[in-house]
Amino acid sequence: MKAFRYVRVSGGAGDVGKLVRKGATLKAGGCDLLDRMKERIAEPADVVAFGEVQNEYLRAIAATPDGLRIGALVTLAEIAASKKVAAHSAALAEAARRAASPQVRHRATLGGNLCQHTRCGYYRIATFPCWRRGADVCPVLVDGAVQDTAGVFDNGECASAHPASLPPVLGALGARVVVRARKEREERAFEALWRQPAKGVHEDVALAPGEVIVAVVLPPLPARTNVAYEAVRQRAAFDWALASCAARVTRDGGKVKAASIWLGSVAPTPRRAVAAEKALVGKAPGAAGFAAAADAAVAGASPLPGNTYKVELVKVVVRRALERAARRER
Amino acid sequence: MADKKVGGAGGVTRRALLKGAGAAGAAAALAGSVEALAQETDGGGAGGAVAGPGPVRMTLSVNGKARKIVAPPRRTLLDVLRSDLDLTGAKKACDRGTCGACTIWLDGKPVYACMVLAIEAIGHEITTIEGLGTPDALHPVQAAFGKHDALQCGFCTPGFVMTTAWAVEKHGKRLDRQLVMAETSGNLCRCGTYSHVIAAALDAAGAAADAAPDEREGR
Amino acid sequence: MPRKVTYTVGRAGGPTREITVDVHDLDVDPWGADAELRVVGTDVPRLEASQKTTGAARYTYDVNRPNMALCRLLRSPHAHATVRSVDTSRAERLRGVLGVNVLVPAGGRITFAGKGVVAVCAENEETLDDALHAIDVSYDVTGGPVTTDDGRAPGAERVDPKRDNVNAGGRRGRQERGDPQAAMAAAATKVSATFRTQVQTHSALETHGCVVEHHDDGTYTVWASTQGTNAFRGSMAQTLGVPADRVRVITEHMGGGFGAKLGAIDEWDRAAAFFARDLMRPVKAMLLRRAEHQVAGCRPDSIQELSMACDGDGKITALSGTTHGTAGNGRGGAGAANTRIYRIPNLAMEQVTVSTFTGRARAFRAPGHPQGVFALEGIVDALAIAAGIDPLEFRLRNDPHPLRQVQWRLGAERMEWDRKRREFPGTGAVRRGVCCAAAVWRQKGGGDYVVNLEIRSDGSVTVKNAVQDIGTGTRTVLAVLVAEELGIAPEQVTVRIGDTQYPAGPSSGGSTTAPSIGPAAREAGHHARLRMAELLAEDWSCKPGEVRLDGVRFAGPGGKSATWGEACSLIDKSGLSVSGQRRKNYGGFSGETAGCQFAQVAVDTETGVIRVERVVAVHDAGRIVDTLTARSQVVGGVIQGISYALHEDRQLDRNLGDMVNPTFDTYRILGIGDTPRIDCLLTTLDSGFNNAGMMGLGEPVTVPTAGAVANAVSHAIGVRMTEIPITPARVLAALGGVR
């Protein structure tokens, strides 16, 4: 780890943002950042003690008229255990509970989960070339070892997959991301948070310099709406998902009135399966409709020779998430 | 000092050792703006400060005692415990938060000490395996680990005990096999002693014995 | 003069046989199959448990010495390259850097990723890290094969320029008997398949390394994470150019080795030793996890092309095949289908090793066996099914081992074989399967190791030997054997081991530690007991032969009786010192340790995810001295075996040659969340090889697991699984869902 200055602030996110604008790096739980710093993939000169900021807004899970607001510094353990979260969406609690291990969940924060970087071994090990770190080509795409960390969508110039557990569920819940930009808090659509990989760019979130994620707001769910989360892990616990899906289904009569389907661990960013949603809406919530949605979800997949199996996994998690969403409330 | 041969079977030179203060000086030059900003944003409060990159004086609360150390911000809590405080129960096995051998409690909750900076632990209560029990006064979970032989080489054991003790405290008699497996899943054991960890955890929690025991002798 | 002793060996209740052996005149009579023992064969918690559970136990990694410096190597990220230049000047200028030592100068050749190029010694962790990042090494990268397939391809870059990468291994690599061709031609049923196994890294939680301290008198103390204190000492002394008695090696506790920490010291140990020697400061060098994966050993992979045939009665008639595997940039073996378990009258097997530009393989828990049994049991299973015979019945027909015949039946009963073979795989997305595989191992231990034993008038008992406890429970085994002889409890025995200032002990490899050292401890206990009898006889004015041990009390004529404490009060101030020695092996019951395992799996046929639900492990290891720690060994072997069967895989970039998953989140080892119920059945017996009837247990318990799991998966999904690890990708591919 390269030497850095540790900057404590007694103010809130606005003060933190000013420091970030000056080039400092935010550290909350540090589960991801510290890992990269140890490998010198990240070499910040100044690290802001975001995780030490004592600010109610950043740390609260609050029921508001706009919906359930979860502060960026709320830990995964707190999300997993929260009655308010469970009341809003058991699927979100489940995704938090299945992420990593208790030790990680006690440190890892909601904000950090959104800002997680890919687990691709080539990216994570400084002595390998990596397009995301500025190399001309991604070695995975040049007959490299195709790891489970590689995606099956958008394998353009980077074969990474976004590893985080919460984003698919947040996406399906229609979350809005609260960003502190300069003086103001702004709410953004969840889709707008992500950017496609670029050469030399490590981050997957599209934040301007100085912008800080301070909370996520989950709007109230419409009536007759269920949400479910499905993930496939090679090991039952403490493993990265090979593929995950969160599905929100709103029924009306015998039909699906609205749906939101998000995928995790299969593309460089959390991925909304718009085609799958379209395939489902207007159909009966049953096997035929779910199968059609699953097929639609993988349309346009561009798997690597070593991970075509993941396309099957996507279909399975989509179908299973829809089946569960059809069965259970919230 | 003439060039001295150091560290080689033969013919290897050591040049100009102990010269200059390169790294610290360079980092200090970057400081200016952030430091000023940090002070400005503090709004007169006492909490804001810039520490490092060089060694920083800090006081940590470890096993109920105030411990003064001097360490740079980049030193992990694990390294401080093991090297500065000679508390070597927490092990360094992966240094990446992937194995659990360094598990300690921060404010009563298990975390990986390798993924916490020492400077971040200021103001928090740190409990290490040494603070849980001693060979003469074992914590019930430590006793149960011994009784059920929930250890082999023992390198994962302090971390496993810390997580298990937390799980036993959290769930009490409601602890069951599935819960043990979930709550201690962040601890790896290469010797493969997990079956005995499950038995030890259930025993320590006073939980109902498993309906189907794992092991029975065939004599 | 040795004396003749005739006694029964084997398993009480059968099978047994009588043997007549020459017992050394100083040795104690062997126990035999019918011995009724007080402590041996019971559950005894390991002596050091409370040290380990409280963090008080100091491992090598935990050694902090005053003024200690740290050492680490800068490693080549390239598999095959020539060093063009090394510039260490920036590192040398850093404050706190104590020494820089170039290991591979310009012009030097690198033949595996992870090779140490520069060694650095520094005051602390941060300075060390800064220094390693301040060294500039440039390479001319050549590239070269890192997989077995690439290494044997025509025109592949040679690891050793003077020799072909492919090494047929000559006579050692070939086994032939009978006329396999004719047998194949005449067979009622014949199957062929190619089995593949991956490279597995040892992944001990304590990485390799040592702390070296150079004393003013020219002697050295070295704390080492080693499986052989004496071997390590010899190698370290040679490196330092001093007599071995000037180096003391201490391994009080050891954080796992599994074979990777046997034998000579490594380049990082050497680097630390030179720094310690020249700086006159203690120096610690422990590997980081990534380096541990890259360079500190692995189990070779294998590609095993096999054919097997049987006659109309389901008797195996022939096995033929060829194995290719790479042990890295050396020329070690790979592990071919095991030919010792079943009767195979006609045989033609060839083992070919392939050199590649990768870190060298090292002995790994039952070298060659897990991969060899995986393939053998896979083809046996396939043959049984092709012949229309129940796979267990087929094994019983072909297994000549009398004890394993018993074990197969015990295991099948516990697993409910008949019912599950009938009811599985079932229907629906999740299918179940159950199957089995055999264990074999043949190490009985040996040597002439001496164990010292001291008793003091306060009743304390101390056992001393340099042997290390790598987690198997060696300390406890020694204490139990001595306690049995002396009528005391094991926890009354203090065992001082892991220190070369005591008599030399065996290296811990090949499951030989307990049977190599245990009998010497028993003999020492026996001698101590005789001396105690002499003291009591003098006190009681009787003959020593009239003093006997009655449970936990000494008893003599006329109702005389003494507790342990009372007897010890007769010992004078200088104490009582005796020793015991490991004597030559006797004829034995069977040279082949027997065992078998049954596995039950659940396979999600939609996702390919496998959960092992239950394992029944039936094992023999001669007499089990401590059933508690023995079960730990069994459970551990099974868990490591499941991990090997389903998860572990060293993934290398084919072009760049370095490992892309050198962390525990991507190099998966089995966790507690995937631990099945494991039934552990120990079919204890007197091995007939030594006074205690012991054999080793560590290796055989991991031999059959991958085979049993793979066969169970095959049962569940109806497709033969021929490649491990059996990942979701492979399950889906086998089911035809993918490609």
Q: What's the arrangement of secondary structure elements?
A:
The complex is a heterotrimer of chains A (about 325), B (about 220) and C (about 750).
Chain A: E1 5-8, H1 13-21, E2 25-27, H2 33-38, E3 46-49, H3 56-59, E4 61-64, E5 67-71, H4 76-81, H5 83-88, H6 90-98, H7 102-105, H8 110-114, H9 121-124, H10 166-172, E6 176-181, E7 184-189, E8 212-218, E9 225-233, E10 241-252, E11 255-264, E12 271-272, H11 274-280, H12 287-297, H13 309-327
Parallel strand pairs in A: 1-3, 2-3
Antiparallel strand pairs in A: 4-5, 5-8, 6-7, 6-8, 9-10, 10-11, 11-12
Helix pairs in contact in A: 11-12, 12-13
Chain B: E1 4-5, E2 13-14, H1 22-30, H2 32-41, E3 49-51, E4 56-62, E5 65-71, H3 77-84, E6 103-106, E7 109-112, E8 125-127, H4 129-132, H5 140-147, H6 157-171, H7 177-183, H8 194-205
Parallel strand pairs in B: 4-8
Antiparallel strand pairs in B: 1-2, 4-5, 6-7, 6-8
Chain C: E1 3-10, E2 16-23, H1 49-53, E3 69-75, E4 81-87, H2 89-93, E5 97-102, E6 109-110, E7 116-122, H3 125-133, E8 136-141, H4 148-151, E9 166-167, E10 174-177, H5 180-186, E11 189-197, E12 200-201, E13 209-214, E14 220-224, H6 229-240, E15 247-250, H7 267-279, E16 283-286, H8 289-295, E17 298-299, E18 302-310, E19 316-325, E20 346-354, H9 369-386, H10 391-398, H11 402-415, H12 417-423, E21 430-441, E22 450-455, E23 461-464, H13 474-486, E24 493-496, H14 513-540, E25 548-550, E26 553-555, E27 561-562, H15 564-568, E28 576-581, E29 593-604, E30 610-619, H16 627-646, E31 677-682, H17 705-717, H18 728-734
Parallel strand pairs in C: 3-16, 14-15, 19-20, 23-24, 30-31
Antiparallel strand pairs in C: 1-2, 3-7, 4-6, 4-8, 5-7, 9-20, 10-20, 11-18, 12-17, 13-14, 13-16, 18-19, 21-29, 22-23, 22-28, 25-26, 26-27, 29-30
Helix pairs in contact in C: 9-17, 13-14, 16-17
Order of helix and strand elements from N to C terminus of chain A:
EHEHEHEEHHHHHHHEEEEEEEHHH
Question: What gross morphology of chain A would you assign?
Answer: globular
CATH topology of the domain at 56-132 in chain B, what is it called? Ubiquitin-like (UB roll)
Average residue-wise pLDDT of chain B = 82
Structural class of chain A: alpha+beta
> Which class do the helix and strand fractions of chain B yield?
alpha+beta
What is the number of E strands of chain B? 8
How many distinct beta strands of chain A? 12
The percent of residues in helical segments of chain B reads 25-40%
From the alpha carbons, calculate the radius of gyration of chain B and give it in angstroms.
Answer: 23 Å
- The CATH superfamily title of the domain at 56-132 in chain B: Beta-grasp domain
> Per DSSP, what share of the residues of chain B sits in E-state strands of 2 or more residues?
5-15%
Strand order of the largest sheet of chain B: 5-4-8-6-7
Which regions of chain B are unreliable across 5 or more consecutive residues at pLDDT < 50?
A: 1-5, 9-32, 41-47
The N- to C-terminal Cα distance of chain B equals 72 Å
Shape of chain B: elongated
